[in-house]
Write a structure and sequence with these properties.
Blueprint (H helix, E strand, L loop, with lengths): L3 H19 L1 H18 L7 E6 L3 H14 L3 E6 L2 H9 L6 E3 L5 E4 L5 H17 L5 E4 L12 H23 L5 H26 L7 H26 L3 H11 L1 H4 L11 H6 L4 H14 L5 H47 L2 H32 L1
Length: 380
């Protein structure tokens, strides 16, 4: 009696269930990316965006209070005594625009801090000047490099370094799963060095995103990349094929959207605005801005954020080491117990053959899992 058709049908059903089961990951990615990117970027509106009005007389005070009242919370308007104080606020990112009223009104901005914030401020004070019947002169006190006219090149550098880092995790954690953890840790550090050097080449010689400070940029890129790689390799011990999804949540969905590379937190919803203060992408973007354009102001805090994520990576590697050690010990004890039981029962040969077959199946399953993980990462 032939069993060919029924066997084929059963094989197709198993394969179909396998494929449908793996649709969970891309669908979760779709939902997560939609919620993150649309939630963060679809309707940017200013809230408590700090701007200054230059002057100490009654007219300056009235203008500042009028703008504050009419903005309905969008602006946080203060007065400063003179132009020098206004420039100092811009160069320390204490404000994002300064308006000098008068016969020839002028607006001071710092586009290196955020081109989108500067654009919002310019729109506000263009209307103010037009209401007074005067044209507005705009002066950029901290322009970006010639190779980065929009000021968003640092954000796209963040994207490149991030993808290079978390994609490397799939290689180390998947294809290198048989290696000792210390070797995987060494590979993670080496990969982060390569990724950070690639980032410096992009930022400097290739695209001219920055025109100085490449050494400091490289150091922050390495610290950022190493943190992602160590966290990813450590998590792989626990998450296995779900590691890619986990890293996308951490370092794409929540990371890119809160980095401040496109919109600063003053233009974003509260959730993403709050992440900006401690997420590693924001530490990298703001750290590079501080180092390249603002004389290192507040740089220590941004580097500290990157260092803390690096420490988290080291801690996860330590936990992974403990977990893998326990697994090896449990496996050795199980193997020893099976060997003793087999000798006592006089069935060592058959048990050994069954064990060998099981090992072959496990290796095949691991290879399939690694291939799937690599395909998911490459597809992203």
């Amino acid at each position: 009696m032939s069993t060919g058709p029924s066997a084929a049908t059963g094989s197709t059903a198993v394969a179909l269930r396998h494929v449908l089961g793996h649709f969970v990951t891309p669908l979760l990615m779709c939902v997560g990316m939609g919620l993150a990117y649309l939630g963060a970027f679809h309707a940017p509106e200013p809230h408590d965006l700090r701007v200054d009005v230059v002057g100490s007389g009654p007219s300056a005070q009235v203008l500042a209070q009028t703008l504050q009242d009419k903005s309905d919370g969008a602006l946080s308007v203060r007065t400063v005594p003179d132009r020098a104080a206004a420039v100092d606020h811009l160069k320390t990112q204490a404000s994002y625009g300064a308006y000098l009223p008068g016969k020839h009104p002028e607006l001071l901005v710092a586009s290196a801090s955020s081109d989108t914030s500067a654009t919002v401020v310019e729109k506000v004070f263009t209307k103010v000047a037009a209401g007074q019947g005067d044209p507005l002169k705009v002066t950029d006190t901290a322009p970006t490099a010639d190779g980065d006219p929009t000021g968003q090149g640092i954000f796209f550098l963040l994207v490149a370094v991030s993808i290079g880092s978390y994609a490397s995790v799939a290689v180390i954690g998947g294809a290198g799963a048989v290696l000792a953890l210390r070797i995987r840790a060494a590979l993670a550090v080496a990969a982060s060095l390569v990724v950070s050097v690639i980032g410096v080449v992009f930022a400097g010689p290739l695209f001219g995103l920055v025109d100085h400070g490449l050494g400091g940029l490289w150091a922050m890129a390495w610290l950022y990349s190493a943190g992602i790689l160590l966290i990813g390799v450590g998590l792989h011990t626990f998450l296995k094929r779900w590691t890619t999804l986990g890293l996308m949540v951490l370092f794409v969905m929540l990371n890119f959207t809160s980095s401040g590379g496109i919109f600063r937190p003053e233009l974003q919803p509260g959730f993403f605005s709050s992440l900006h203060s401690f997420w590693n992408g924001a530490g990298f973007v703001e750290g590079v801005r501080s180092h390249v354009y603002f004389g290192g102001h507040a740089l220590g805090g941004h580097v500290l954020v990157l260092a803390l994520w690096f420490v988290v990576g080291l801690a996860l590697m330590g936990l992974a080491g403990l977990a893998e050690s326990k697994r090896r010990k449990a496996a050795a004890e199980t193997a020893a117990a099976d060997a003793g039981s087999g000798e006592a029962g006089g069935a060592h040969g058959p048990r050994h053959a069954a064990g060998a077959g099981a090992g072959t199946w496990t290796e095949a399953g691991d290879a399939e899992e690694i291939e799937e993980e690599m395909e998911e990462t490459a597809g992203v």
